[in-house]
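Reviewers asked in the last cycle whether our approach scales beyond single polypeptides. To address this, we selected a multi-component target totalling 506 residues and predicted its structure end to end. The input consisted of the following lines:
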Amino acid sequence: MIKVVILGGGNVSYHLTTHFLENTQVELVQIFNRTIDKILKFKDKTSITTNLNELKEADIYIITVSDDAIATLSSELNLKNKLVVHTSGSVSLEQLKSNANKGVFYLLQSFSKDTEVDFSNIPICIEAERNEDLLILEKLGRSLSENIYFIDSSQRQKLHVAAVFVNNFVNHLYYLGNDICEENNIPFEILQPLIAETAKKITNLLPFEAQTGPAKRMDTKTIKKHKAMLTKSQEEIYTLLTNSIYKTYGEKL
Amino acid sequence: MIKVVILGGGNVSYHLTTHFLENTQVELVQIFNRTIDKILKFKDKTSITTNLNELKEADIYIITVSDDAIATLSSELNLKNKLVVHTSGSVSLEQLKSNANKGVFYLLQSFSKDTEVDFSNIPICIEAERNEDLLILEKLGRSLSENIYFIDSSQRQKLHVAAVFVNNFVNHLYYLGNDICEENNIPFEILQPLIAETAKKITNLLPFEAQTGPAKRMDTKTIKKHKAMLTKSQEEIYTLLTNSIYKTYGEKL
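The resulting structure, written as structure tokens, was:
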């Protein structure tokens, strides 16, 4: 059994907690948070505390607090020779301010408290200063998911930007599409099979090969017609992305 | 049985043909194309022709040629009192130049010849000048899919722009994400569960509610760090979309 303490009470903490509590390979010995309210619901399942001086013995201490709070919280820990990891995509390993052994346990998924997450295929990106710690993190990762990757701090930060493009920005394009539908009394659900197919297509094809549409073939007539229908801010995005697609194919084909 | 003639030999023609040939409610009586090569493979399944004067009797003539060719081809047809429809998202009903009765049969999906398409949940947007033709198109639509929508020419053109945002532009963001991964020796597959989850999330939540990330919370520290990692053209897109997200929440929250 891998003994784990979770620090923090946000979405990552919540999802890790619920999965560790059902996990036969992991013993969740404690949850720490500065305030008790967010972790109170687990009081019958494991030890909970708001006092860093009461941290229990464990193999891994997982810091799940927000990026800005990682340095401060880690500097308050006195866990020499223990393994302390954070779960952030954009914070480097060095930003753990601790005399402990350091590592990263980054789950590449977008968590909301209301949505159950299937952990079995979540990519988990691990990093550690010491090889033996990497092996423990790998074991912990494999108890949750089949997709474990060794990703260093520099790669992880790049990956985090890439995730912003394919998750945050993609969702914003859904929002803009939804907006255009609403303005014209079109049910947004009409677009959902296309959205699903677009995401599915790139599991077999590279995005470069999967591209279609007026921008790729520089169909200026359709592009002009489209622009005339858009608001100024919609048009700005339309134009920049259209030019970027055109440049991609103009230069590479 | 609804008797159908398909005009054109591209992707839409191909997919409609293969589905109509298996459809017990539809008799595909003929395929026309200006050149024989693209429709030759169906010669044992139905009548094929390159001669507009040899068109057979049917209930519906479906024009599947490219947007630019619709006006010309339709003007060459002599199908008075017959129903002629096109399958384009961005061409209005009026651009059918014909003495026939006019309609639109628009399948809202991105077709590639190599990828089999599940028609059962494809949205089909129909429009016709006459109510009785709308009913025939509805019947034809329901023989293929459960999702039939009555969408007029103005709405359809807006829908087509919205589809560009959620399909063409989204795929380009996948491309940019893939590019960042490649530059840093990160396998793109790491991002695929996140991509799938992002698309899935908006079947339950509005995109406005599903938004997460540094732009939404105007996490300027992370945004600055991200920008520093990007090429000039990646950064331009990052900045515009980040500002657009921020404006969306700054104004609406």
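The mean pLDDT of chain B is 94. We regard this as preliminary and will revisit it once experimental data from Aim 1 are available.
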